[in-house]
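Revision sheet: structure tokens.
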Amino acid sequence: ERVKQRLALYHGILPIYMDFSDDAEETFSRALSVLV
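Predicted:
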């Protein structure tokens, strides 16, 4: 949480928290659904 706040403050980045999976394809799919 602290990292997300610092990124937003110092770099103008909108941080998004996402759970990662052991399966790379599932993680990639989750990332796309969050971003779209």
